[in-house]
Each structure stands twice: as C-alpha cells, then as structure tokens.
C-alpha cells in the first residue's frame, strides 16, 4: 500500500457540488445511525447532528428508548427508533452507520449481523461497532463477505483490538491500514492527526485538514455522521470517506479559528459543518 496523494480542497470541490435548485429532501439521502446507550447519549447526538448538518434529507437514530428525550431535545430534526426495530426494511436507507456509544454486547452483535447480511449499500462502522467485530469471529467473516461497501473508522486503540490486540505501537499508519485491509478487505480510515484513508490494497490518501483542538471526546462520532451523510447523498463510498475526513477537519479548523483549540468541543465541530460546506460549494 502506498500514499497516492493528499486529500485537498481541489479534490473535494469535484465531489461536493452546489445543490440543484429543484432538489427535494428525497434526493438528499435517508440515513440510519445505530448509536448511543443510556450512558452514552452524546455519541448518538454528535453523529446525528453532524449528519443532519451535512445535508441529509432524513436522519433516523436507532437507539435505547431511555435516551429518546435527550436526543429529541438536542437534535429535533432526527427521528428516533427503538433497538429491535431495525428489521423494518433496511433497504429504505441510503447509508447506515453503526457503533458510536452503543456498547459491546449481544444486541450490538445481532444488529451488526443483520446489517451486514441484509444491506448492500455503504455501511460506516465506528467505535463499539468495531469493538464488537473485534470480539466475534463470525462478524469478522461477515465483514469480508457482505455485499455492502464497508468503511471502518478506527483510532489506534480500536485498530489494535481489530488486529487481535497485536502490538502495533511501532507500526506506521500505513502499515496498520495495510494489516486491517488484509484482515477485513474493506475501506479503512485510520484516525488521528493526518488521518489516513486506505481505499484499496494499493491506494491510500492523507487528509490535510484538522487540528489538535479535535482531540476531544465525541469528535470521531461527528466524523461518522459526516461520512454517513455524504454516502447517503450519493457519493461513492471512496469519495464519502475521503471528502468526509476533509469536511470534518475543515469544520474543526473553522471552529478553532473562532474558539481556539482548548475550548473546542465535539458539538462545535458539528455546528461548523455548514460553514465548511458553504466554503466548499461557493
Ligand atoms: N459523550 C459520549 O457519549 C461519547 C461516547 N464515546 C463512546 O465511548 C466509547 C469508548 O470510546 P473511546 O474511543 O473513548 O475509548 P477506547 O478505549 O476505544 O479508546 C481510547 C484509547 O485509544 C487510544 N487512542 C485513541 N486515539 C489514539 C491515537 N490517535 N493515537 C494513539 N492512541 C489512541 C488511547 O489509548 C485512548 O486512551 C465508544 O463507544 C465511543 O463511541 C466517545 O465517542 C466519546 C463521547
Ligand atoms: N491532533 C489532531 N489533529 C487532527 N485531528 C485530530 C487530532 N486528534 C484527534 N483528531 C480527530 O478527531 C477524531 C477523534 O476520533 P475518536 O478518537 O474516535 O474520538 P471519539 O471516540 O471521542 O469521538 C478523529 O477524526 C481524529 O482524526
Ligand atoms: Mg471514537
């Protein structure tokens, strides 16, 4: 695997375009985000807020009903659905994300299994989605076999778990991505400063946006929402992954221009997504 280039503004301009005047919400993608739990409502809030701010026509959140009220207060545009109801025709969604703050348990395993078996568009897997896959061989096989285009978004800690707790401390990001590709055969985003996006066994790209202010709880959940929204709006999985990390970093950069790096929080990144998209489409 080699780094084929940088993810820069010029490239992102070519995949995120100004909206046609006659567009309607049905054209803008309906996405499902499986996220959150009683202890981690925030993760579901950050991901769904980012997706709606990134232009999705409709965002549905599948979560524990104990957190419906906080979700509906923080992101009233999103629709809540209870765990267990995911069977309601997954094919109606243009993209599905799973993982942020959902916990690692049998229910997470079962939902992942259902999505990987029944859905054939883009699936973004993050956080506890990745931790659950790391725990169950059966899911690891399914990731390889699924007809869906899977995008995994691990940070280094999650990458280590996905590689069976191998010692990866001395590996470069490209080596980590390469091992993950070999094991899972899907698109891999290794997060951190200069996030790496591996789109095939040969090709990887480095992001050029982002700043240390983004080292704060929940900023990865925002990334999940952005990539999911872009894929749901029709970007090819590879473009959604690459443009997604760029938009995420640019939103963080615009937020840091205003707020500085210390006080920046995940919701700020989501709140600045509209400004990043405005800049990119003008
Ligand atoms: N408010 C909320 O509801 C939040 C919930 N979250 C959820 O909390 C759960 C646990 O996720 P966490 O990621 O916090 O915990 P993890 O235990 O998965 O990862 C944290 C550890 O990973 C390592 N790590 C991460 N990035 C690294 C990097 N770039 N370089 C080197 N090491 C790195 C560090 O050792 C770090 O302590 C997930 O379900 C997540 O979605 C988080 O997203 C934070 C916010
Ligand atoms: N120093 C940094 N520079 C640029 N981006 C960063 C930096 N630190 C973290 N990020 C970005 O913030 C996000 C953190 O994601 P993650 O570790 O999953 O956090 P969380 O699980 O708390 O949401 C990633 O997209 C990562 O690339
Ligand atoms: Mg995370």
TrEMBL record:
Catalytic reaction list: (6S)-NADPHX + ADP = AMP + phosphate + NADPH + H(+); (6S)-NADHX + ADP = AMP + phosphate + NADH + H(+)
Membrane-spanning intervals of the chain: none
Entry EC no(s): 4.2.1.136
GO biological process, alphabetically ordered: metabolite repair; nicotinamide nucleotide metabolic process
Binding annotation for (6S)-NADPHX: 43, 101, 155, 221
Matching HAMAP family: NADHX_dehydratase
Protein family per UniProt: Belongs to the NnrD/CARKD family.
Protein name as annotated: ADP-dependent (S)-NAD(P)H-hydrate dehydratase
């Amino acid at each position: 695997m080699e780094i084929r280039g940088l993810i820069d503004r010029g490239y992102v301009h070519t995949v995120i375009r100004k909206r046609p005047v006659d567009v309607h919400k049905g054209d803008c993608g309906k996405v499902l985000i499986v996220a959150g739990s009683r202890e981690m409502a925030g993760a579901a809030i950050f991901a769904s807020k980012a997706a709606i701010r990134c232009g999705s026509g409709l965002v549905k959140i599948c979560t524990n009903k104990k957190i419906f009220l906080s979700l509906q207060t923080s992101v009233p545009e999103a629709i809540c659905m209870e765990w267990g109801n995911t069977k309601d025709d997954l094919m109606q969604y243009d993209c599905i994300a799973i993982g942020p703050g959902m916990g690692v348990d049998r229910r997470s395993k079962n939902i992942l299994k259902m999505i990987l078996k029944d859905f054939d568009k883009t699936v973004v897997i993050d956080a506890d989605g990745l931790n659950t896959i790391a725990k169950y061989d059966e899911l690891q096989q399914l990731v390889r076999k699924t007809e869906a285009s899977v995008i995994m978004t691990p940070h280094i800690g999650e990458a280590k778990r996905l590689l069976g707790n191998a010692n990866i401390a001395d590996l470069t990001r490209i080596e980590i991505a390469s091992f993950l590709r070999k094991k899972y055969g899907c698109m891999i985003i290794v997060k951190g400063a200069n996030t790496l996006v591996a789109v095939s066994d040969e090709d990887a790209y480095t992001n050029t946006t982002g700043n240390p202010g983004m080292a704060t709880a929940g900023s990865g959940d925002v990334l999940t929402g952005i990539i999911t929204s872009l894929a749901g709006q029709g970007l090819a999985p590879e473009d959604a992954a690459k443009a997604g990390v760029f938009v995420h970093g640019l939103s963080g950069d615009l937020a840091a221009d205003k707020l500085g790096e210390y006080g920046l929080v995940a919701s700020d990144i989501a709140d600045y997504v509209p400004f990043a998209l405005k800049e990119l489409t003008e």
